[in-house]
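Comment thread on ticket #2218

A.B. wrote:
> Attaching the input chain for the structure job we discussed in standup.
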Amino acid sequence: MPLIYKICPAALWREAEEKGRFEGAPVDLADGYIHFSTGTQLAETAAKHFAGQDGLLLIAIEDSRLGTTLRYEPSRGGALFPHLYGSLDPKAVRWVMPLPLKSDGSHALPAEI
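C.D. wrote:
> Ran it. Output below, let me know if you need it in another format.
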């Protein structure tokens, strides 16, 4: 089953775990859905939207666990990005790991992505 990924500030994710739901980061709330990336989109997403930001987590979810509230919609250059129209139950998450910064300000993505 394909994994999709969310980059999220650690404090915001910890708050979601306590509440039992993640309703999104400020950009998600403004857009009306939670932004995710596929594995092939992740490096570009990290570079474009999170360059130089520390204290982030990488969250992996099996897309099939999100049901009909997940839609793949055109975004950058027509690529289909996963968007979740609803909140995310932290129990649906497969894994969460730190997304450390490298010395050049880019993020060290896990090799298995």
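A.B. wrote:
> Thanks. Noting for the ticket: The chain has three helices and seven strands.
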